[in-house]
Amino acid sequence: MWSANSFQRKVIEYYRQHGRKHLPWQGTKDPYRIWLSEIMLQQTQVATVIPYYEAFLERFPTIVDLAEASSDEVMHLWSGLGYYSRARNLHKAAKTVAEEYAGTFPQDPEEIEALPGIGLSTAGAIAAFAFDKPTAILDGNVKRVLARCYGIEGWAGKSAVLKALWAKAEENTPVKDTAQYNQAMMDLGAVICTRTKPKCDKCPLAKECFALKQGMISELPGKKPKKARPKRSVYWLVCIEDNQVLLHKRPPSGIWGGLWCFPEIEQSEPIPEHSQKLSSFVHKFSHYDLEVQPLLVKKLSKTGIMEPNETERFALAFLNKKTQAKTAQIGLPTPVSKLLASLQ
Ligand code: SF4
After folding, report:
1. What does the entry give for GO biological process (predicted)?
2. Adjacent-strand bridge partners of 277
């Protein structure tokens, strides 16, 4: 088994020769840009993130611009990227930096971690990349590399497993060249030590890797214990009058918080009178399935299911993503955008 020193050396050497160095958020020391990329990259592929990252920065070039934006506009620019609590927290954290730090991103890892939506690993990444602090990171990619290299078994959602992974991450993180090392570990996990079919023949850690030697690659890292996926069944009430559609803004927290959706009722409720069923579909969230039956209804006010101040009518053309210039500056979840497109 290698020492922390030789592990670091192999990882950094790999990065210098093969690492990704031209992603839009690389080569900057701006903590705002680094933070934005780290948040967007959570659970999301690089190729998906790039256009969102660029559009976001074009509209909000500084953290103060983001702090001053309306929540509808922030959600609009995030629409389609998913995991919307990331956008809500990003907006909240920008306001905190603007108000409490006069618009200058804090440098201390503990202060960074105290901002909304920033966990220990993201704080470590920002502190290392923007401020050259010797802070460790432990995102999903790094967890996979460490679990396989060192044979750390069990699901990282269990505190003992997470503790063992953090201990290895900290032990291996160098004081010098921390940013390069952290970037290298993220790259290794994303490009070489992938979830399925890792490219062990190209891996600088293959010689000592526990999982490779023991034939345990598919078992490491340990998976989350499976539970039956819950399902929720709802009606979406599609009310169109004079080419305008009625949408309802969801409460600020929870699923699709702050985004505009069709008014929704549980399928256990009686179906509204004179409604017509449109094609149903299932939308998968990370922790449950949402079965949606859209219903074309005539007059929504008669159902009495919502507060008038939470709903608004939008011209259908105004909501069409293809007519970019006219698109409303509001956040729409992907299934809502798709259903709207099918109505036009
Ligand atoms: S040898 Fe294979 S399993 Fe082990 S760290 Fe490298 S890519 Fe991952």
Report:
1. base-excision repair; mismatch repair
2. 295
Q: How far is the CA of 68 from the centre of ligand 1 (A)?
A: 45
- Spatial contact of 52 and 25, defined as CB atoms under 8 Å apart: no
**Residue whose CA lies nearest to ligand 1 atom number 1:** 206
Q: What is the pLDDT of residues 42-74, one digit of tens each?
A: 989 999 999 999 999 999 999 999 999 999 999
Q: Which of 53-56's residues contact partners 24+ apart within 8 Å by CB, and which partners?
A: 53/24, 53/25, 54/24
What is the torsional sign of CA 14, 16, 17, 23? positive
> Ligand 1 center to residue 146 CA distance, Å?
9
Ramachandran angles phi, psi of 277, nearest 5°: -75, 135
Q: Map out the domains of the chain with their CATH numbers.
A: 4-219 (1.10.340.30), 231-343 (3.90.79.10)
* Span 9-38, pLDDT tens digits: 999 999 999 999 999 999 999 999 999 999
Q: Where are the alpha helices (DSSP H) in 79-138?
A: 85-100, 109-113, 120-131
Which of 171, 127, 274, 147 is CA-nearest to residue 222? 147
Asked whether 70 and 82 are in contact (CB, 8 A), the reply is no
Q: Is this model's pTM higher than 0.90 or not?
A: no
Answer whether 148 contacts ligand 1 (Cβ < 6 A). yes
Q: Is any atom of ligand 1 closer than 6 Å to the C-beta of 217?
A: yes
Q: With a 6 A CB cut-off, is 209 part of the ligand 1 pocket?
A: yes
- Residues catalogued as catalytic: 38
Angle, vertex CA 197, rays to CA 120 and CA 185, nearest 5: 30
DSSP string, 208-233: G-HHHHHT-GGG-SBPPPP-PPPEEE
CB 249 near ligand 1, within 6 Å = no
